[in-house]
UniProtKB/TrEMBL annotation:
Entry-linked Pfam families: OTCace, OTCace_N
Protein name (record): Ornithine carbamoyltransferase
Coiled-coil regions, chain positions: none
GO molecular function, a single term: amino acid binding
Domain annotation Aspartate/ornithine carbamoyltransferase Asp/Orn-binding: ranges: 153-309
Membership in a protein family: Belongs to the aspartate/ornithine carbamoyltransferase superfamily.
InterPro entries in the record: Asp/Orn_carbamoyltranf_P-bd, Asp/Orn_carbamoylTrfase, Asp/Orn_carbamoylTrfase_sf, Asp_carbamoyltransf_Asp/Orn-bd, Orn/put_carbamltrans
Biological process annotations from GO: citrulline biosynthetic process; L-arginine biosynthetic process via ornithine
PANTHER family from the UniProt entry: ORNITHINE CARBAMOYLTRANSFERASE, MITOCHONDRIAL, ORNITHINE TRANSCARBAMYLASE, MITOCHONDRIAL
Domain Aspartate/ornithine carbamoyltransferase carbamoyl-P binding: 3-143
Organism: Eggerthella sinensis
Length: 339
């Protein structure tokens, strides 16, 4: 059965650690200029119905570094969901490509594509989850662990919206407690969801021994933080809400020097980016010596290389040199005789 990458929770803890380790190995190899062409000749279709800097660049560069090729496909430029059903697009792309990455604001489009594709489908961000960002964040955290701690016992405090709109927060709130770690949402009153929404996070606590809690006082929330994570204060398409959200989030829910002074001295700062500088995070924190923002953006490349290798390497056909020579001779003979 085709394995997809729609939700990091579809992967066991052991597999998550393997992906992080593979990403680190590929990063080391790439820094030495020795990245092996593990996906030689493979093609990735990248569908984006929203803008992207990190996801688009990292997947395209990842394929190039691994010896493959990526195609940027925009709705409006392909027939997906318009003159062709999602199923038919899935069937066709499965014959032409080796994997598909899709960013869509319609989660059912991502799931629908995966249901009918016979090649791996990667969720490059939906409304509910952003599993690629989440995996790469875990990789960044693994590279910057507080002294004496493992990923399984860190505390991440996510300051911002704790509702369905925060797809990175949602993804991290599921995986961290399952790894045994501690996830804290710090959101203003009125920016939390119904209890049902947090059921997967509570289940993850039972499975992995971590904890999940929702607090409203930022100073209290960051008291034991190893990582303080920030997210955008308002979303594209929600511009009518912008004034209200700024009123509700500022100044208390901005990650700035004053809030950082309430956290342990080693606390590190994260943001999935793009950030609205000076709103959810001050300039000083974004550029702080303990800011992981730029390492995190760089790790999108290596985490995504690991996902691509995990999903595609085993399925790639690799002919022996003898078979390659035979096929070359057959085709060249035919060309000489017929063209
Ligand atoms: N964090 C993230 O997914 O960034 P992009 O929207 O630039 O891809």
């Amino acid at each position: 059965m085709t394995r997809h990458f729609l939700d990091l929770m579809d992967y066991t803890n052991e597999e998550v650690y393997e992906l992080i380790e593979l990403g680190s190995m590929l990063k080391r190899a790439d820094k030495l200029g020795a990245c092996p062409p593990l996906l030689d000749g493979a093609s990735l279709g990248m569908i984006f119905d929203e803008p992207s800097t990190r996801t688009r660049i990292s997947f395209e560069v990842a394929m190039t570094k691994l010896g493959g090729h990526a195609l940027y496909l925009r709705p409006g430029e392909i027939h997906l969901g318009t003159s062709e059903t999602v199923k038919d697009t899935a069937l066709v792309m499965s014959r032409l490509l080796d994997a598909i990455e899709i960013r869509s604001c319609a989660d059912d489009e991502i799931v629908g594509l995966a249901a009918d594709a016979t090649i791996p489908v990667i969720n490059g961000m939906g409304t509910y989850l952003h599993p690629c960002q989440c995996l790469c964040d875990l990789m960044t955290m693994s590279e910057h662990l507080p002294e004496g701690k493992a990923l399984s016992d860190v505390t991440l405090v996510f300051v911002g919206d704790a509702t369905i709109y925060e797809n990175v927060g949602t993804a991290l709130s599921h995986i961290l407690p399952r790894l045994g770690a501690h996830f804290v949402y710090c959101a203003p009153e009125g920016y939390c969801a119904d209890d049902d929404f947090y059921a997967p996070a509570y289940r993850a606590c039972e499975e992995g021994g971590g904890t999940f809690e929702i607090l409203h006082d930022p100073r209290e929330a960051v008291r034991n933080a190893d990582y303080i994570y920030s997210s955008v204060m308002w979303y594209d398409g929600f511009d009518s809400d912008r004034e209200k959200r700024m009123h509700d989030f500022l100044p208390d829910y901005q990650i700035n020097e004053e809030l950082a002074s309430c956290a342990p001295d080693h606390a590190m700062f994260m943001h999935y980016l793009p950030a609205q500088r000076g709103y959810e995070m001050s300039d000083g924190i974004m550029d702080h010596e303990r800011s992981l923002l730029w390492d995190g953006a760089e790790n999108r490349l290596y985490g995504e290389m690991a996902i691509l290798v995990k999903l595609m390497y085993a399925a790639r056909k690799r002919a022996s040199e003898q078979v390659k020579d035979q096929q070359k001779a057959l085709i060249e003979t035919w060309i000489a005789e017929n063209l």
